Fold this protein.
Amino acid sequence: MGIDHYDAVVVGGGMGGIYGVHQLREAGFSVLGLEGAPEFGGVWYHNCYPGARVDFASTDYSFLDPEIYREWRWSERYATQPELLRYLNFVADRYDVRRHFRLNTWLTGARWNPARALYEITTSTGLEVTARFLVMATGQLSHSKTPRFEGLDDFAGELYSTSHWPHHPVELTGKRVAVIGTGSSGVQAIVAVAKVAEHLLVVQRTPNWSVPAGHPDADPSYVQSRIEHVEEWKARLLMHPFGVDGLPPAGLAADFSPEEQQRLMAQRWDEYAPGVMGLFTDTGRSPETNQLVSDFVRSKIREMVDDPVVAEKLCPRYPIGTKRLIMATGYYETFNRDNVTLVDVGADPIVKFTEHGIQTESAQYDVDVIILALGFDAFTGALDSANIQNADGERHADLWSHGPNTFLGLMTAGLPNLFLLTGAGSPATLSNMCLMNTFHVDFVVDLMAHMRDHELAVVEPTKEAQAEWTQHCADVASQLLRLHVDNYMVRVNEDGSRVFMPYAGGLGAYVERCNEVIETGYNGFVMYTPSDVESQPTAALAGSSPLTTASQD
Ligand code: NAP
């Protein structure tokens, strides 16, 4: 039997993958979608832990396609994971993409064949295909960190991970549970598990900033007006720094007197607590302004937690917003419950797991269930496991030895015809990921259509454009306090240099730059015709050759 060939293979059945397969089909391309899980959903399939919900308003975190937007009503302002999963399945059906996907099928490798200008693709099921383009819709927060606790296998109780929560019922009622990790996933799980567990140990290494997410219900008249004007809203959200309908900033903190600053922060907190981060335009850059906002939120934490000793342990010491702000209603109040204990493993580190629980340097904690919420190998984890190689056998890791090298976060010189949706070097996790995914898909599909119209076969960024963009990303990030705080968005190289992985200039500025690239006939990309590839096959593989650039009029 011959090997099937497609114009594009899209990897991932989450938001980007579903929309990508749909848009490519609409544009007349042959396409195969690959998804390792048995269902659509991506992160919203795997992260089905108790309490999981989106922390962007669902009116923003939606496909802003008028047909889809009109047909779906979110039941809450921040949709829960089960509702998100229903939504993604609804969209997959509405777009009729199921028949173009292979579920339960992981990409195991892809190698660029320069003579044929295509990727030779292998999968976990033995299926082999070829495709001219490879679109990675694998997300940036999909590959979870491997737990490295000594004695992990000795624990005789139940062990779960938020990022790969089982799809069978997990009974936590009446059990002694420990949650390790207090990032967004851990915090959401903690609030939910505390309500059912006999006892909950919150195992915290670093206290993080968490703010109440805000009103649970969306205002029906607002939702209706969003539906009626969805296209205008899409254009508006694309120009916002984070891709949301956010409250406007008041200005620099120094524009206001100390009394006015306090009044504004209190007002913003009551109106929409997460908005306190964006109240002053310099909170992310000025240590003084950040201290002001950090002190204000610390005072709120002390108000919410009854026990002053516990409150101090929960108060973060790093500048607010320099790791992703956590949004979770009821988090701090959870520590007022009799069945919840905070364990500070920053002060008393975990030594090992034992048969009955967790041993720290000074205590043994016996539990029935341990939930790991340790975070993700962000930005590179999914690519590492995908095993994508150019003709020389180089992988992205070889080309990113000092941090991501991309043009617009979408492509890397040396890996032709490979698109990374929401990749490092794009606003990615700093923005509304649903909007970001759809914007990237639209960009990729338009680029592929342009290449088809001009009979072009191979595309990659020029090294100059890539270097200029990578430098621009570094320049923008260099002003940020968050570059200096360790977290999953910062890569620390062996020589101590730090690289901020997403583009920090804001979604609006990013979209404008992408639109400029389109308007100039894809300036910054180099494209080759099939005859270029035939005559000099090895040149079109590593971005290293001065191959004739195809006419791009
Ligand atoms: P995370 O923010 O990276 O948090 C990981 C947590 O695990 C941290 O508290 C970390 O402590 C702790 N940890 C790691 N290794 C540890 C160890 N050996 N011992 C003790 N503690 C350890 O990961 P996450 O909570 O999964 O969130 C990641 C991102 O996913 C979020 O920022 C967000 O972008 C996204 N997310 C979104 C939603 C949503 O939309 N609602 C929900 C969940 C996640 P240290 O800080 O000390 O390293």
Notes: The two ends are 41 Å apart (CA to CA). Residues 61 and 434 are 6 Å apart (CA to CA). Residues 53-55, 141, 180-186, 188, 205-206, 324, 345, 350, 373-376, 429, 488 surround NAP (CB under 6 Å).
